[in-house]
Design brief:
Length: 169
């Protein structure tokens, strides 16, 4: 409003401090980009900090991402064209409520670009409704796949085939 100045003229009251979480984004055109997502210290939908999964499953459309490079420049990616996001092995998936009691299944995935991934998914459904089809039909488009090399956030819209693997191959 005119005539009133902010106590901190360089800071907007709408600014939310964000932290960077390192990840690799794989796009539908075959491009792989290493960089960082911006996550808030708190989440509006659950206790604790915002996670990359929250950002990906948030509002439809585009998301900001900062590719690694000589200078920092944020780009925005259309989330529908993100095949998956690879996080370094971390515990983000373990922060999901019910993680310790969810049905854990070893799976093999085939994505729309031909990529095959193997790892574990958690199905957060009551016993009897905890099939892989229940996992794939979740309202969240990005779901965790925990593998040895990384924790992946898979865009289930690009999931072509999902099969359960024996737990001890």
């Amino acid at each position: 409003m005119r005539g009133y100045q902010s106590v901190y003229p360089d800071t907007s009251e709408f600014r939310v401090e964000k932290m960077r979480t390192t990840a690799t984004v794989v796009l539908s055109n075959g491009t792989s980009v290493r960089g960082a997502f911006f996550v808030a210290g708190g989440s509006a939908t659950h206790d604790g900090p915002e996670r990359v999964k929250d950002v990906l499953n948030g509002e439809p459309g585009f998301i900001p991402f900062e590719p690694l490079g000589d200078y920092a420049q944020t780009v925005i990616y259309n989330r529908d064209h993100i095949l998956y996001v690879a996080l370094a092995p971390n515990s983000e998936a373990r922060l999901d409520p019910g993680y310790d009691v969810a049905t854990r299944r070893r799976v093999k995935m085939l994505l729309s670009d031909g990529t095959r991934l193997i790892g574990f998914v958690n199905v957060y459904r009551p016993r009897g409704r905890d099939r892989l089809s229940d996992f794939a039909r979740s309202y969240e488009h990005f779901q965790y796949l925990e593998a040895d090399a990384a924790t992946y956030l898979i865009n289930v819209r690009h999931l072509v085939e999902l099969t359960e693997e024996p737990s001890n191959p």
